[in-house]
Amino acid sequence: xxxxxxxVETGFEWRLYRGHDDDWRRLTWPPEAIPRSLHxxxxxxxxxxxxxxxxxxxxxxxFGRGQAWGLMRSTDGxxxxxxxxxxxxxxxxxxxxxxxISPGGGDHITLAVTWYSGAHRLSDSGDSWEPMxxxxxxxxxxxxxxxxxxxxxxxxxxxxxGSGLVMASFSRGLQRWAPATEAWQTVPLxxxxxxxxxxxxxxxxxxxxxxxxxxxPEDGTxxxxxxxxxxxxxxxxxxxxxxxxxxxxxxxxxxxxxSLAVASADEAYILLDTEETDSGPGQPVRILYRTLDGGKxxxxxxxxxxxGWVSAFVLGRDPEGRVVLxxxxxxxx
Length: 333
Fold this sequence. Notes:
- This protein is an all-beta fold.
- The chain has 1 helix and 27 strands.
- The strands form 8 sheets. A 4-stranded antiparallel sheet has the order 4-5-6-7, with no helix packed on it. The chain has a 4-stranded antiparallel sheet with strand order 8-9-10-11, with no helix packed on it.
- A hairpin with a 6-residue loop joins β23 and β24.
- It is globular.
- It starts with a strand and ends with a strand.
């Protein structure tokens, strides 16, 4: 978990915690670095007992202040951190994901997307990133919504068998990567902005968040959230897309933070900013929405049991297979 300590007047100190059940331990972390996301990867071999942690700090240097933190990795459970930037081309890491190289295997592949250099991959045994280049010239940023930069791996990904799919958004387009061909294919879909009279009025589909259905091998379902164009769903492995945000109060571009999770082909959750400001942290109030019919309708999950508004959420399942929501409050807890 991540969270700011302090208030609007004195400024925030960012702290990083790791917990099991109700036992939380503060990790070593530079207090001025804003954690954008945290990723845990199981040990690479039986001799290791600690998960490997990757932390993606928000690169404030993109906004003209502070330093570019790049990508941080810990191999000792968060006691120490070091940058892992060799081969990336630029330090502005925007998203990261990891998955087993083959289903049930111990070795993992880790993918990252950067602002200027696009997609890269890192194997368990390496400390240097390998580019996954486009056939066309790389363009910086995510597109009409500059922060539409994301990457996700399908649950059936198998590098050796050449099966599964990688979806990524970079170089002003939504890209598909099949391990069998080891090449990117840009999704050729022009979309319109979520608000009228926005410049540009049309652009290529991009995404700030990408989520596969857990049953993707059977249902082929993928959800993407574009800060420029809204929410889309595909049921044919990303070949075609349908917009599914009717009556969903999407914030206008430019969207920076994205929170999207998928429980099944028809059940998905999205956390959206509102125009109201939370008096505690001074950030926009957020509301969590859920669909149970593939995006045809959405319901707000009101009165969450949190201190303040929902600031973050994670999906899980209990031993009976029921969906469990873990919520973080804007004022702690």
